[in-house]
């Protein structure tokens, strides 16, 4: 089921995410909004993360249901998260998030996708804390990692193990699905 139907839905979600981030005190370092799910890399404490997704989810669902004249749940499950505890995995997570629209056939290059933080590296988007991202990782190295992953066989670009049916294994996602 789509959680975004058009550009207005995506724009509104990004605005709500920025507001939720400010309220919860989290830093969004990377994201990709897909038609039926979203990925985020967030710097936060556990309770801040829950607060962020609760605020964002409640406000988006209310807006989406009113706008599209529907009722009920929009998200199947509570968000899933996995801690990023080392530099190498941090780079893999950022790259995976930015390559998601490419592997989903929505863009040819990560920087081409309108609903991802990858474009914020050159043009601020009001949500992504690119200064903090640059403190934690070398953006040039991340660009190179993206290019390498684009040339690699598809199975090598997937850092999160999948189970039958294509869904990530429990605890194997980087954000909201």
Briefly, what is this?
The protein has 177 residues and is mainly α. Helices cover 44% and strands 8% of the residues.
Write the layout of secondary structure elements.
Layout: H1 7-24, E1 27-34, E2 37-43, H2 46-67, H3 87-103, H4 130-136, H5 139-151
Antiparallel strand pairs: 1-2
Helix pairs in contact: 1-2, 3-5
Q: Could you characterize what this model shows?
A:
The chain has helices at about 5-25, 45-65, 85-105, 130-135, 140-150; strands at about 25-35, 35-45. A hairpin with a 2-residue loop joins strand 1 and strand 2. A two-stranded antiparallel ribbon has the order 1-2. With about 180 residues, it is mostly helical. The longest helix is centred in the N-terminal third of the chain and has 22 residues, at about 45-65.
């Amino acid at each position: 089921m789509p959680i975004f139907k058009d550009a207005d839905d995506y724009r509104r979600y990004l605005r709500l995410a920025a507001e939720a981030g400010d309220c919860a005190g989290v830093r969004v370092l990377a994201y990709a909004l897909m038609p039926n799910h979203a990925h985020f890399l967030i710097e936060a404490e556990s309770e801040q993360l829950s607060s962020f997704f609760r605020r964002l989810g409640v406000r988006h669902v209310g807006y989406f249901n009113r706008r599209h004249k529907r009722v009920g749940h929009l998200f199947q499950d509570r968000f899933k998260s996995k801690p990023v505890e080392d530099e190498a995995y941090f780079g893999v997570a950022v790259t995976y998030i930015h390559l998601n629209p490419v592997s989903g056939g929505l863009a040819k290059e990560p920087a081409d996708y309108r609903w991802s933080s990858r474009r914020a590296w050159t043009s601020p988007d009001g949500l992504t804390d690119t200064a903090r991202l640059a403190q934690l990782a070398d953006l040039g190295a991340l660009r190179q990692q993206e290019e390498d992953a684009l040339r690699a066989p598809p199975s090598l670009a997937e850092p999160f193990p999948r189970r039958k049916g294509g869904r990530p294994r429990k605890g194997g996602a980087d954000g909201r699905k």
